[in-house]
Amino acid sequence: MLIVDRQKRLLDIIRQKQSASLDALADELAVSSSTVRRDIDTLQSQGLVETTRGGVIYRGRGASSLALDQRMAEQVQAKIAIGRAAAALVEPGMTVLFDGGSTIRYALEQIHVRPLQVVTNSLTVAAYFANDEQVELLVLGGALYPRSGVLVGPIAAKALADIHADLFLFSVAGVFGTDIFNSNLAMAEFERLAIRQTARRVLLVDATKFGRKSLARVCSVEDLDLVISDADLGAGWQNALSDRIKIAASTD
Question: What is the mean pLDDT of residues 81-110?
Answer without folding.
Answer: 94
